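User: Could you walk me through two proteins back to back? I'd like the raw sequence and the structure tokens for each, with a short line separating them so I can tell where one ends and the next begins.

Assistant: Of course. Protein one, sequence then structure:
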Amino acid sequence: MYRIKVGPGDLAASRFGIAPLFETVIAVGIVTERIPAGPVRPWLERVRPAFRTIADDPAVRALAFLMHERGYVADFFSPPPTRPNQTVAEQLAVTRATPLEQARAEIARTLETLPEPEPDVRDVLESPDMVRRFADCMERAWAVLIEPEWPVLRSILEQDILYRAGRLAAYGWAQALDGLSRKVRWRDGVIEADLRDDAVVELDGAGLMFVPTIFSEITVTLERNWPYTLMYPARGVAALWEGRGSQEGDALARLLGHTRADLLRALAEPATTTWLSARLRVSLGGVGDHLAVLRASGLVTRERSGRSVLYRRTAVGDVLVGAS
């Protein structure tokens, strides 16, 4: 179990970020079946053909070999973000700047719980340009696996941050951690995470970086070389691929039309047009047009939150959905 001790100044110092390179690395583990797919299996089936174009790269094979659920994985593969909107190019620059000695030490620690690698994988791990080769292969994996759907995936992550950061600011640690994962809890000034390793860390005013993810479960980075980071499953990932659409005989759909009824139901919590487009598989323009009608009818309202515009149901919209 990890135990993260929180002090008086850590709430103000804590922040949220998005880690596109972490999503890429975990995605490689999933597509090579080193990590279970879980709720993202529909995504997995969609990207398999594209992944075959890079699957024979020895560096990709080495990266996949090092991905596993039950132990440490080298941190330089996916450095924690230092701000909310860090790009994959910025994260790759941090990876490429990793000293070879540090990278070798992290790889050696990762190999402690793994079998002997194949010769081509061993060649990558022992090469003097190992860091560059891994960074290059992760850049290719990003382009194949994540980048085509990144606007939609990023919208899910951003929506989660809006929700979770709001709870942290308004209610404190206990409410922010509530529902984060069954493996995480708040207990008397300590964040407990049920993971295989044991560690006790005191934040001592440094705060904690919260990073929602699409493809991973709970992951903690408590290494000296990196910011203290807690990565957790973003809310709404499973909903992205689950069945959609109004049911036959739906009274609300008969009143408003199927798409508007689906939109109104999807706004049980505030959402962006990008997320709604992904959730309902409707074009951004179509979502915007329908939201304009719902807004003019007094069923939804909108407000700006940072860079995002959030739509939410009004009290009238709540009554209409509840009645249906």
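----
Protein two, same layout:
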Amino acid sequence: MLTKRSGEELLNALTTLRADLAAVIAQLQERVGGVRILGRVRELFLEQRDATGLALQLGGFDRSIIEEAKFPEEGGDQIPVLATLPGHPAHEDHLVAHDAQRFSDWIGSDAEHLAKRVFHKGDQQLFIANVNRLPAEDTLGVDLIYHHVSRDSFILVQYKKMAQVGAGRSEWGYRPDGDLDDQLKRMRQVEEACMRLEQDPPADYRFVHQPCWIKFCKSEQVAPKGDALIGGMYLTREHVEWLRGRPGLATGPKGGELFGYHTVPRYLDNTTFTQLVQDGWIGTRGRASDIIQAQIKASLDGSRALVFAGLIGDDTTQAERTRERRGGLTG
């Protein structure tokens, strides 16, 4: 009997030798083990699905609906995740008029691939938009911008894919590419702008009040089953730069830079990151809305797809969120 790794290598060899078999193999695998990720269209869709599910979870909403997202065919047109979910997208008049108009102005309507939706829970509404202005093959990755309106706080999560590395390809890691320095520079500029706009004195305490995070996530060959989020490591922009300056940390076996579970000693996972955002321990403080529109534009101008989420309505207490988590909302 073949091991999982040997089976994957055999399938990869078959599809390399016989490209015409790829679609048939993918259909068989999807029937028994989930959606196979063969190319860039589905890679981008999976990242966007993860960011959409993460946005729902950050707002304290049930993310199980993303299980019903329908993956596009490889080689076909890219489709926003929200456009594939069941039910009819909510109209913007379900939102407070001021916020609806502001979100629409921020996002614009000139994207070829755009879908919006509103989710409701009690007195809270979560507005989510999937935006992409470029074909999948020209899109570098996904950014998630999450805005908590009542706190006037936001975070930016940029996705980076880890590949299988090391002897026997048994580890996951990300080797910095030529775009990372530019992206870290943009993140520093965002954080400097936020510092200038902070309330004085701050009205709300944070463990981390800088907004920029990177999610180093596995480059999955098969989409996670159900509504599971992609496994990964969340690091602040500052933490990434700190690791790059420390010999022996974020360093691969041959001495090159490598961000992975075996080279980064401390990071946040999906569950911990979500809980800290929900409870208001991380995120900007004060006048976040003044710079979000610029960050939306910067993401799209930087050849990145965008998932934007805005949480509207009175905040729930930490005790209420704890009861919801114990009732089945997990990471």
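The longest strand covers residues 153-165.

Let me know if you want the two compared in more detail.
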